[in-house]
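FIELD: query
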Amino acid sequence: MNPVLAEILHLLDVEKIEENLFRGHNAPNSHHVFGGQVLAQAIASAYRTIESGRMLHSLHAYFLRPGDWNLPVLYDVDRIRDGRSFTTRRVVAIQHGRAIFNLSSSWQVAEDGLEHAVSMPDVAGPENLVSDRERYAQIAKKHPEVKRFAFRFDAIDSRQVEGLLLTEAAPHPPYKHTWMRAAERLPDDPEVHLCLLAYMSDMDFMSTSLLPHGRRPGPGNGIQGASLDHALWFHRPFRADEWLLFAKESPSSSGARGFVRGTFFDREGRLVASTMQECLIRPRD
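FIELD: result
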């Protein structure tokens, strides 16, 4: 397995240190605690307190404080409810004795019921698209600062339908479509696929709200950007090592906040997950 993907999977494999208390580590060479990583580690912590046969169907999370990449993150799981059909867990991520993140999640036994779903957008497939790994490798020759986030594309095979990158500065309507999958075959463990999709759901998501303004997130670009909250709903089974279309749009931005929402479809066109996020996009000009 390639070392970047192996490292991410290692980070998502939280360590149990006491009943309902887990520890997650940060990438040793990163000066940033990625929100998708904290989200995925919190899911992994809750997962390990859930009765077998129940699957995560929804979560709602808030990013409360910036993380400190020099320290591990503690995840305190509150077993709020274990019902006959549904299980509820709350997870608080802690550093320096303070909460930096909290998550509420609901898990359900498998049930049959009524079904419908919207259709997958009619966009080009991934086979003939240039990977983000290749694109950012070229950009990094002149702008090495992109390596701060672009290393993740060694682990996640990501391909933009519209060709819009995080470095894009020209205005564009507030939508984009990205094909994503793990760069290599993953273990069959459902926890791995659940956590990795959560990780991917925070990649290049906030930037959708900046597209109509021709702005970019990050230092030196005049925008203070940060995730404020994140929600995910899991509708149908999926594998994170098979192609998923992440369709993203931003219906609104106001009050220095951007609102983005997205849907994941598998290669057969089935809607497998939905996500929403509000983010800070504060102009610093």
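FIELD: remark
The mean pLDDT is 92.
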